[in-house]
Design goal:
The complex is a heterodimer of chains A (426) and B (685). Chain A is α/β, with parallel strands linked by helices and 426 residues long. Chain A contains nine helices and 23 strands. The longest helix of chain A is centred in the C-terminal third of the chain and has 23 residues, at 403-425. Chain B is an alpha/beta fold. In chain B, 27% of the residues lie in helices and 25% in strands. Chain B is globular and about 95 Å long. Classes of the chains: A alpha/beta (426), B alpha/beta (685). Chains A and B meet through strand 4, helix 2, helix 8 and helix 9 of A and helix 2, helix 3, helix 6, helix 7 and helix 12 of B.
Chain lengths: 426, 685
Amino acid sequence: MDSYSSIVVGAGIAGIQAALDLADQGYRILLVDKEPSIGGKMIQLSKVFPTLDCSSCITTPKMSAAAHHPNITVLSYTDVLSIQGEKPFIANLKKKARLVDETKCIGCRQCEYDCPSDVPSEFEMGLGARKAIYIPFQTAIPQIALLDLNNCIACGRCARVCPANAIDYSQQDEELTIHADSVIIASGFELTQEPFKTGTWGAGKFPNVISSLAAERLLTPNGPYMGIRRPSDGKVPMSVAYILCAGSRDRTMGNPACSRICCMYSIKQAMLIMGSLPIVRVTLYYMDIRAFGKGYDQFFETAKAMGVEFYNRKIGEITEDSETKDLILRVDSIDGNEVIKKERHDLVILSVGAIPGDKLVPKGLSLKLGDDNFIHCSFPTNPTLTNQEGVFSCGGAMAPKDIVDTILEASATAMKTSNYLKSLKK
Amino acid sequence: MKEKTQTLKKDPPKVGVYICHCGGNISDVVDVEKVRKAVENYPNVISAHDTIFMCSNEGQEIIEQDIKENGVNRIVVASCTPTLHEQTFRGAIRRGGLNEFLYEHANIREQVSWSHAHTPEAATDKAIRYVRAAIKKASLLKPLESIKVETRKHAIIIGGGIAGLRAAIDLAENGIMVDLIERSPYLGGRVAQFHELFPLRSKSVELIEPLVQTALKHSNITLHLNADLKEKSGYIGNMEVVIEKFTTRGINPQMDNSTLQAAIKACPIQLIDEYTETGLSPRKAISVPYPANYPKTPAIDWYHCTRCGKCAEAVEESKRHLITTDPGPSERFTLNTGVVIVATGYIHYQPFEGEFGYRTSPQVVTLPQFERMLSPTGIFNKELELNGKKIKKVAFIHCVGSRQINGVHQAQSDGNVNDYCSRVCCTATLQTAQDLKKKFPKSTVYELYRDIRAYGRSHEENYYEEAGKKGIVFLKYEGSFPPKVTLNTSESVYPLTIQLTESFSQKILDLQVDLIVLSVGMMPRSIDSLVGELNLSVGADRFLLEVHPKLRPVETANNAILLAGTCQAPMDSKETSVAASAAASKAAIILNKDYVELEPFVAKVDPQKCNGTGNCITQCEYLGAIKMVEIEHNGETKKRAEINPLICKGCGACVSVCPTEGAIDVIGYEIHQFDAMVDAFVEDL
């Protein structure tokens, strides 16, 4: 049975950074992610605040460093079924079948080019398409295809064109068990679907009401439309509205907490839209602008100076002009008691909040959760410790956090884990 | 470094050129394809590629493959600044099996696409010239070996607050020896000043005491109080640091309280930003510790004491021997260390006299003062009364000394305004206002704010929502229209008036209040001598600057120096602990390797050509990097310059002043290589 110093659950920016710090200290790490590529949410972003570096420029080198590190083993498309015991922990993992033999696939994408089945792309937030057999995105790690059986029409073309003979329609999920001396939970947060479930602000009903992560894809240079276009008709938007706190600070949406990241990513997106479209109005409807980090408030001031409009009001309701597919926003006072005016926009972006995923903690661990259902910590000067000895956490799994804070926390958790591992040796 | 690097002496240069689009950052301005076409047939080039993200795994694999399969033996990457990804590409080259120094970088993002965003054609032209120059230089590169030096498994931490203590313990538990240097006579730092801290409502004693006790017991940690860093020399893994330290604490612990109080009263030094238990008067150079401080005995802060002797004069003669008014010269000693972690913390913004009535009215105090006044040992613990008068209405003004606007807010003496958000004051104010309301439910409490930034975990639910439920009145103002405070006449019921333009209603309100609490922001501590000695970078906000907030968030330009906590930016105690542990992790990565690899780009002397003029030594900024030695040559004794590659930084200042051509050069940045680059720049396209 393979054994590791640490199993890191989740290979987003938190997990990758924690793994890198520990591996650089000489520990053997198993980095596991349920998705077919590592990179987490950060790899889906266009540019990141407050430096406006392209997100890929920060993420892909770290992904690559993890993949190439002699002390790190990466297992993508793998579910953690359970983590039992202690000293060492025993982890049961399920390597999901890609229906592609990873030892043979060379990442040439020939199967993808020839596959006739188009499917909305998860990576592009449904705005673009992928094939039934596909590599999740251009900079994915590993560069190995996977076949989505739900959308496969069983034409057999992929197997015929594959130059490496890698397609294996009979491949089965594989269960494996490993030992690890410590566990790091870096499984991150999810974005709330609540407005789309409830249809609030026309989400899910009107094509031109989209989520902020979809907007993020539109803003990426290699994004689905190769530019900012609204989904209903491909028109370049003239007037974009952001609704902040969509699913945060709102008990009616089941989430009273602040999601901490939405103010800044909305301001960043607004700046990017202003920068790439010559004639556009961008309005942010907000409750408080929480630009709290290093350089963030200056970033907010820059956005104001660029002409981004900030309007301290709530949006009560959105209706659609059935002819133009434009949206009419009912602007309410901040306490919601008074209707102030109606405003027309042709694209509405919901700055959706961050919530805990339902599979945050693997079975078998006895981690305490907070009232917010994120992993709880009661050690004020050791904020990455959990209630279970040998189990650590960082990043979005311990409540929403921006990338800067997540990366710091990942290094901090690596330090705690390293010291725990040292104490085991004594 | 891998031993199996290819030897290239016989191989002619075969250059591979890799041009990055940077996801549009470059390709939106520069015609990348045109650049590739303009260089693919350039002399020595055998392979040229362009790709959307050269730094991605996919991009790096192109380089690896070209080396392994196509015989490329010189690499040119044209992308962003090398500070971001030079190491990334060197790694790819190593994996390809080539010496990583056979690589030249052309920065066509910061120096081309970003700086010439509105002239794409000229930018493309410039990019071609940059890439061609890099090809010329790459063709002349020779394989190099990095310089390996042993590491000293030791760290120095400057600052004995929560960040310094946290980092010290983390490293000590990792088996690393630590010396912790604190300038004041106490451990505990800024946290010790407060009674209770959000987000867990921890008492400062509960936060600091366990850290102090762990540090005291740990055999790997040596503490130095009343001590300061004076000099630093050497390089990562191997530094000599001179520490100055006062060993006497100045006050004999046997001294009775009334004598001590008399001595404190007589001390003329008032430490700004330090408060006594009651909250109102400042601490002196002699002080008693806060409950969370260590040691628990009074002491003299020798860095602020002027040795005036007034304290001793104020006490009975029979007790004077209990005070040391002159500690004598400080002790100096040298520590050998591998890294230095700076954890010097912050100071509170000091409002000007008259700013919102501060210091012109006794009824205007700052939040840290008020927090102590409201604490169990403070004057507002039982009664909300000041100078015999009941306090009914209290207003908190947010963003004092934070988010300032040039022209609206008065600049400080150095001409600066604090244009940043101090991050912690919103929740700190919400907590204190709530405590006030809890203790004195009948009081009216206003919060005058710009945005309530209760961003942290549970801050919104436990502090902001809760404040609303407790009946605290929130009034929003715009940054460009800060509230105005006027002092009322003595006949008025309330001593102060706040005039405020309320944002939502746009109405002008006159609030009558008894007490105003200013939520002062955080400022970097002035540590100019340390900044100079350690060669630290300071940001526009005057906090210490990291290399990159995401790629190297606690590292400084000098890779031997790391940052921890609020010396870098405002943060709360929990975030500070995280930052300190992160700095410790980076230190552990450096120190747990047995050696550090230094760049081979240092000066070299050709002893055949050197005439021993010594111009290079006069020009050199790095003490000990060049020295003059005497050598025997044809029976004659001659002077020759000699380089210490461990100290030399390869800046090239020596090269520019050397009168003899070819006598001194910087390895990897040689004159003939630059000549070739210049030729390429001026070629016709």
